[in-house]
Amino acid sequence: MDNNTFQDYENEIRSLEEEIQLLTEMYEDRQQESTFFSDEEILMARRSFQGEFHGGSKGLESPSDLKAQLESLETDLSFLMKFTGIQFTNHSKKTVERTRNRTVRKHRLSGNCHSLSFQLEFQLLEVQNKENVSAVITDLSIILESGEDSDVSKFVSSTEEHGNLLTFFRSLSSYAEWYEHRRCTFLHFK
């Protein structure tokens, strides 16, 4: 066997090992997510769900009612996308750390707002107390298509520092709408 063939086999083996490692991590993440709740909590949630669905199900007793509710939610989502101009094209999340009362997940979002593309990457730290769950955004990173504008760069830096996604999306919607108007106006005069 010559060296090239041997090297090709080694590269294929490394590739397969990396794929096995990735699949193992995905499997462990799924296992962690399923073992996060105790058997007692799962049983209580199941009883609660069954009680709501069978006993006091607020009019959602038939599949046609569920279908109508789903169509209503899709209509609402479509309205919000048209109203804000924000469309998410990709989302992924990965559990980084999980303990009994603390979970850290890494999220990646990408999408468009009018004609601007954006990408977000952040970690969501969820801490569960006896009564409630609190969530904090950390390590926020924003990539915005029109980052050449110094005011936008300052805004993005400030948002990354404070981790305020609501303010970011509100401002992005307004800025992207006017960015599109300016772009069309300049094209008109060219």
Automatic annotation (TrEMBL):
GO terms for biological process: CENP-A containing chromatin assembly. Residues 6-33 form a coiled coil. InterPro entries: CENP-P. One of its GO terms (cellular component) is chromosome, centromeric region. The keyword NAD does not apply. The keyword Coiled coil applies. This is CENPP protein. It comes from Crotophaga sulcirostris. Keywords: Coiled coil.
